[in-house]
Amino acid sequence: MTTFERFVILGLASIHSEQNGLAVEEVLAKWIETAEVMWPETKTKRSSSADVEEIYAAYPSKDANNGGRPLGKGQKDKATIKALLTEGGYSKDELLQLIKQEVTARQDTGAYLRNFSTFLHNLPDLEDGTLL
Fold it and tell me: In what helix (H) or strand (E) does residue 128 lie, and over which residues does it extend?
């Protein structure tokens, strides 16, 4: 948390304490207690290298719609996949589903496939199914 964010929180707690006749410490303690209940800490997800490899292999290396143009797959993409699995909130199945949707939609319309890193950095929304 930045110093600015700490000052903002302290300022808000001070205003709230004055309005409700409480000590600032009481307000902060109550806010922390409420935050812990509402947003419990999530444990960092682990991803296996097999999951990363499976997702990496699911995206084609060449674009069949564009004369076999290479799609720029590389080791940096594996690091991005790992980050999406551990920190990005995606599961292996969700990423595989997004890849399948992307490839199928582009093949059906004849549109060119995006480079793999472009796809990974601009994932479509899984819920509404829209592909960018």
Answer: none
Q: Of 37, 36, 9, 14, nearest to 26 (Cα)?
A: 14
3-state secondary structure (DSSP) of residue 70: strand
**3-state class (DSSP) for residue 69:** strand
Average pLDDT, 10 consecutive residues per value, the chain (132 residues):
77 89 88 76 67 94 91 92 87 92 90 92 70 44
Q: What φ, ψ does residue 30 adopt, rounded to 5°? A: -65, -40
| Under 8 Å between Cβ of 80 and 117 | yes
What is the C-alpha separation between 28 and 85, in angstroms, rounded?
A: 33
pTM, entire model: 0.61
Contact of 131 with 101, CB cutoff 8 Å: yes
DSSP 87: T
pLDDT of residue 69: 92
